[in-house]
Each structure stands twice: as C-alpha cells, then as structure tokens.
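@here heads up, posting the sequence + SMILES for the magnesium ion run so it's all in one place. Ping me if the SMILES looks off, I pulled it from an old spreadsheet.
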Amino acid sequence: MSHSPILEVQHICKTYPSGTRSLTVLNDISFSVFPGETCAIVGPSGSGKSTLLGLCAGLDRPTSGTIRINDTDISPLDEDERAQLRNQYIGFVFQTFQLLPTLTAMENVMVPLELRKERNIAGRAEELLDQVGLRDRLDHYPTQLSGGEQQRVAIARAFINRPRLLFADEPTGNLDSETSSTIIDLLFDLNRYHETTLVLVTHDMSLASRTGRILKLSGGVLERDLQNEPQNL
Ligand SMILES: Nc1ncnc2c1ncn2[C@@H]1O[C@H](COP(=O)(O)OP(=O)(O)OP(=O)(O)O)[C@@H](O)[C@H]1O
Ligand SMILES: [Mg+2]
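bot reply: prediction finished. Complex structure tokens:
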C-alpha cells in the first residue's frame, strides 16, 4: 500500500442555509484513504453520508476544510478542472442513478469515455452491461428499465473509465440479494485487479463488513473509524 493517500479529507464542514438559520450537515470531518483500500461509510439517514461522498468526489464544495485527490487540492479548481479530474480518476454511482433519460443503456455507459474522446468504446460498454446482467437491455431507455436495472447501468457507467477511485452511494440499495451479490463481487474484483480504491455508502452491514474499514457518521460527525478484520473475501 502506498504511503500517499489517494483521498485526503481535512477538517471539512458543510453548512446549508435553512430559513434565517444555517444547518451544519458535516462538522469537522477528517480522514485519509490509501490506494487500494476499501472503505464503507455508514450511519443513520440524514447523517451526511451522501453529502460527504459528493464533496469527496468534487461534485460540490465544502464550506470549509480541504480535500485532496491524488495530492491535488480540489478547492481552488474551477468547475471544468474538477470535471476533468473526475473524468481522469473517479467513478461515481449515485443513490438516484442519474442516468440521462434521452440515452439508451449503452449510450449512458459510454458517456464518460466519449467525454475523453476515446474510440472503440462500444465493445467495452457491452461487456460491462453483460457483466451486470443487462445483455438484453442495451437499447432500452432508462424509463424502460426497472429501478435495479437502472442502478446496474449506473454501476457499469461508473466502471467504464477504469477509475482509480470509485464512490458508490448505496450501490445495492435497490437490488435483490442475488444481483446484489453479483454487484458486490464486481466491485471487489475491480478493487483487487485494478487496485481501484472503493468508498461505499451502505446500510447493508454484510457489505460493510467486507470492506477493510468502516467510517461511522452520526449527526454530521465522524463518530468512529474502524479497521475491519482482515478482509473476508
Ligand atoms: N442541498 C441541500 N440543502 C439543504 N439541506 C441539505 C441539502 N442536501 C442535503 N441536506 C441535508 O443534509 C442532511 C444530510 O443529507 P445526506 O443526503 O447527506 O444524508 P444521508 O446520510 O445520505 O441520508 P440517507 O441515508 O437518507 O441517504 C439532511 O438532513 C438533508 O436534509
Ligand atoms: Mg444518502
């Protein structure tokens, strides 16, 4: 394991305006994640898990504090520079999938590589959709897919640029147990073969127990940072 973290979060706070007051959603969170680590963020609904994941991936800015991805402080970067950094290093599976409604499953999966102007990407998109069990749904639009199927498209899309850092918000939240275990295996395979660092938000303790480390959020505070027993893969 390298000595330099791929993700370094230092003293971040996130505050939202709420009427005339302000609401502190994350309060002084610090942790580092090293290349190849697997890490679960757990905690009750509303504890700030999705907010934290979005900040770590550079999708939003903290109110204060620093986030470094691969030694780059992302706060001074403008929108385009952050998008470029995400495209280069990061895959993200959103809790609400965020598929583009006017594109088919195949087209949605190809978007990150098209942004990188890569060619011959259809084969890889097809292979990934096959791996998540959607070989027969390549030309379906999101409205023609079930919730679990949309989630699998979102997962295939997150994998396609072979990210060094994969963030997944409830990646198995809408899946039956069989598909869920296929997806989990896929996530951990990716972690092992490509040394992709995984940071997952989950309510599923059986998934959390497979990661190397569990961060527990409670009311916007990092309550615990536990190293799991050697990975039970
Ligand atoms: N854009 C926003 N404006 C104002 N408040 C927000 C915004 N986004 C999130 N919040 C608040 O921040 C808190 C944390 O939200 P977040 O989505 O991070 O929770 P979570 O831990 O992911 O919950 P869940 O398990 O239900 O997904 C919530 O109380 C929510 O109301
Ligand atoms: Mg959430």
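MO: The chain has a mean pLDDT of 90.
MO: One more: Residues 177-194 form the longest helix (18 residues).
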